[in-house]
Structures are given as structure tokens and as C-alpha cells.
Amino acid sequence: MISFPSKLLEEAVNEFAKLPGVGRRTAMRLVLHLLKEKEDKSLALGNAILAVRQNIKYCKTCHNISESDICLICSDKNRDNSMICVVEDIRDVLAIESTNQFKGLYHVLGGIISPMDGIGPNELNIESLVSRASENNVKEIIMALSTTIEGDTTIFYIFKRLKNINISISTIAKGVAIGDELEYTDEITLGRSIVNRVPYNYSLLKM
Amino acid sequence: MISFPSKLLEEAVNEFAKLPGVGRRTAMRLVLHLLKEKEDKSLALGNAILAVRQNIKYCKTCHNISESDICLICSDKNRDNSMICVVEDIRDVLAIESTNQFKGLYHVLGGIISPMDGIGPNELNIESLVSRASENNVKEIIMALSTTIEGDTTIFYIFKRLKNINISISTIAKGVAIGDELEYTDEITLGRSIVNRVPYNYSLLKM
Asked: Is B11 in contact with A64 (Cβ distance < 8 A)?
């Protein structure tokens, strides 16, 4: 076991090593990097961590990260509040927003149902989705979850919870990625994309 | 470009992304991990970074990290102050200390001569090494630098600076790593290890 020349160094390395994907060697490299940098640069990282953890809020409607009680997307009058896109976490909101193809609202579940990891429906923001879906103006719920067994399970659970509400439920299109060569597409995706083929639509080429 | 829902989030991601080997996606993942963790755990990382950067000192003798003016190794009366092991940075001190095979003192250069990166002799702690080597008690300087062109250049430069001082200069042994199979050893290492072969010494087997 390495004996550290300084308790402060050891603590910083230990804290970095708790981050996902960061081992003790990487943690040591990062701390020594911070020590070599100009002091204000290193302090900026420490202060940014404290600030984000202490001051960040979550939108009370969609559970997206926010600086106020209602996030910028939910409070934007120009967005279509008849559509709610259900996503696993905040990164998915950012990913979909960067496509500029969706002008509705979001609902962040905070995870997907995964019994292996001890995550059941009660750990997720599903109750608040059901009550949002019951509101008059909402017409469509779009499920944009990972195309995995856990994602499918979560979609099915939410579908059952919403089945008494008069609302249309859709999922994002699954198939061969744009720009992919068929030769390198995995067999399951390719097989399903043939079974679930759609009528040719010239106007989509312009997207 | 991703539009962040919060300035605080954006700043934290930007600061993480400045770390070596951390891209913007990884930075985002780390920040969201900190937001999911219990608050005191995330604050511990921020505070540890601030503490280590603001309070750490360097040993005035050997430039190792220290909590006082003279580090624990330099101030240890049980260590052999006739030997100084020259290393590139603090990680090398930790690596050699963990072998328990060296009981002398260290000298941390803070880098190696690398014109490509703009690091010349003046950027390194070489002057202080020359003055330590001139002290009466020092008998041997052990060069424990990377076995690269930059390492060899640095050793040669230090050798020239020390040549008027009556002191022995050695380098760490280079050759096939213990436990390695010859089949997988690179040709240069294997070739040199044959040229620089040493007399068989039974007592080393017990190490």
C-alpha cells in the first residue's frame, strides 16, 4: 500500500477515486495535475463542485435540472405542452434538445426499472408522470428510453399505468442508424427494421 | 452545441472537462454522479480539492509533497543521507517507497528535459540538486528516470553538471521485468539486457 507524504493529498486522491471509472492511479494523476496548475484554476473546480451540489434544483414538473422551481423548458410558452417525452435522465434531455426536432415537454424518470440494481417503479418519477398525463391538455406521451430489456420493461409498466387515461402513447423509432452501412448493423436491429418497415416518405430525406 | 439547463451545471462540466483525459461526456457523467450522491459525499470532493490546493507544501530540500518545510523522508534520522535518488515527480517517490528497497533520500526534479514541451533544465529542480550533491555527506546519486530519450537526456545533463563533484552516479537497472516472459519482451529491451548482462548472483533470488 502506498504511504502518502501528506494527509491532504491522500484525502483528495481518495475522493477522486470514488468517482465512477476513476481508479487510484488516475485519481493520483488528476490531483497532481491540479497541484501543477495555477491555483485559481484548481480552486475553480473545487468551487464549481460545491456550487453545483449546494445550489442546483430540480424542476417540480419534469424533474429536469433547473435553477428555479420550474425549468426553462416547462416555463417556455412557445413549447407544445400537449406532448410529453419520457426520458431516463437529464443527459437524454440534452441529447434530444440538441437535435432541435422536438418542441414538446419532457419528463425525467431518474432511471429505469432494473430489479438487478434494486430500482423498482417506486424509485422513479412515475407517479408524477401519471398525474401530468391526466391533465386535460396532454395528448401524447413519447417514450424515449434505452432500447434494452430494462427500457422495454419500464415502457410496459408505464403503459399499464396510463391505459385508463385517454392518451396516445408512442415510442421513438428503432432501426438502422442514419449513415450506418447495413453490413455492419447487428442482426437483431436489422431483422427488426425489416419486420417494422415503414412506407417510403420522400419528405424525410430533407431532414 | 448542447444548451445546459443550468449555468452551475455548465460550469461544473467545463471545469471537469479541463482535467487531463476527461472529455465533455465524461465530465457530464461525473457531475450527474455527484448530483445523485448524498450531498456530504460530493461536498467532500470539492472541499478536498480546495484543501489540497491551498494548504499543500513542498519540501525545501527534496521538493516532495510535504505538510511542513522539510518532508517526512528528509527529516527521518533513520534514513541514509549519503544516497540521493533523483526522480521525475512525486508519483515516482511513492512507487519507489512502496518497494521498501531504498532507504536513502530523494530529489524530485518536477519533470524531465523535453524541448518539445518547452521544458529545459531551468524549469527543473536541478540547481538545488547540484548544491545538495556538493554537501560533504552525499556519496551517491541514483538516477531513477524514465528509460526514454527525454530521461536519458536529463541524466546526461545532470551528469555533466555533477562531473566536477567527487561523487558516484548510478542509474537504476534496465532489463527484462521480473515475471516477464522473454517471448513477449520488446526487442530493444531484450537486446540490451543481453549486452548488459550481469554476473549470476544467487542472493538476489531471495528478494
From this structure: no
Q: Which residue has cell 534514513?
A: B79
Q: What is the ipTM of this complex?
A: 0.73
Interface contact A12-B48, CB threshold 8 A: yes
B contacts of A65 (beta carbons < 8 Å): 5-6, 9, 35
* pLDDT in the model for residue A137: 87
CA atoms within 13 A on the CB side of B157: 20
Asked if A50 lies within 8 A of B51 by C-beta distance, the reply is no
Burial class (CB in 10 A: 0-12, 13-18, 19+), A64: buried
pLDDT at residue B1 greater than cutoff 50? no
The domains located in chain B, with CATH, are 7-55 (1.10.8.420), 65-172 (3.40.1360.10)
